[in-house]
Amino acid sequence: MAEHRSMQRAALLDAARSLLSEGGTEALTFPALAERTGLARSSVYEYFRSRAAVVEELCEVDFPLWAAEVAAAMERAESAEGKVEAYVRQQLALVGDRRHRAVVAISASELDAGAREKIRAAHGGLVAMIAEALGKMGHEQPRLAAMLLQGVVDAAVRRIELGAAEDAAVVTDAAVAMVLRGVKG
Q1: Which of 63, 79, 143, 181 is most buried as measured by Cβ atoms within 10 A of its Cβ?
Q2: Using H for helix, E for strand and C for coil, what is the string for the chain?
Q3: What percent of the chain has pLDDT over 90?
Q4: How many whole angstroms separate alpha carbon 49 and alpha carbon 51?
């Protein structure tokens, strides 16, 4: 029985990822989850008490995997500058991944305080990763620089997701150039 519940929960989370990546937070409804999984709508409530609870669990499951991919890319780089570049490139490479699209959709949604705090804590882990590299590059305020750098990444993510006129590779290269050289170009 426990294995069946675990499989159903995983199916619900997978359906939630799909719904979020296809239609944003508005698409994540219990009737839609029920339809995607073949469960009765009342059964969805047995697994999750609210939409925020679904979102919170997605963050708990998906964000660490995504962050691990960013960390692995940074570890492969040999210099502090290489780590910064890997940090930006890996996050932007993940834009098309359903887990990433779900996390982006989640962060744009109206969540309860607990879910928002978990997202902030997870993002804090990313910022800490890059702050260390920025400190090695000589930044006097590496945490502040890391938060600003993440703002550039977030803006590039939005630009790519909008399907802007530029190709994703052009946006990625521009974001890397900006974080490494500033606005000098």
Answers
A1: 63
A2: CHHHHHHHHHHHHHHHHHHHHHHCHHHCCHHHHHHHHCCCHHHHHHHCCCHHHHHHHHHHHHHHHHHHHHHHHHHHCCCHHHHHHHHHHHHHHHHHCHHHHHHHHHHCCCCCHHHHHHHHHHHHHHHHHHHHHHHHCCCCCHHHHHHHHHHHHHHHHHHHHCCCCCCHHHHHHHHHHHHHHHHHC
A3: 48
A4: 7
Cβ count near 60 (within 10 Å): 13
Per-residue model confidence (pLDDT) at position 66: 84
Task: Please return the burial class of 12, using the count of CB atoms within 10 Å of its CB with bins 0-12, 13-18 and 19+.
Answer: buried
Q: What is the distance between the terminal CA atoms of the chain, rounded to a whole angstrom?
A: 59
**In this structure, what token pair is assigned to residue 70?**
């960013």
Neighbours of 31 (CB within 10 A): 9
| Interval 85-95: pLDDT, tens | 999 999 999 88
pLDDT 10s digits, 153-170: 989 988 887 776 778 899
Please say whether the dihedral angle defined by the alpha carbons of residues 21, 27, 33 and 35, taken in this order, is positive or negative.
negative
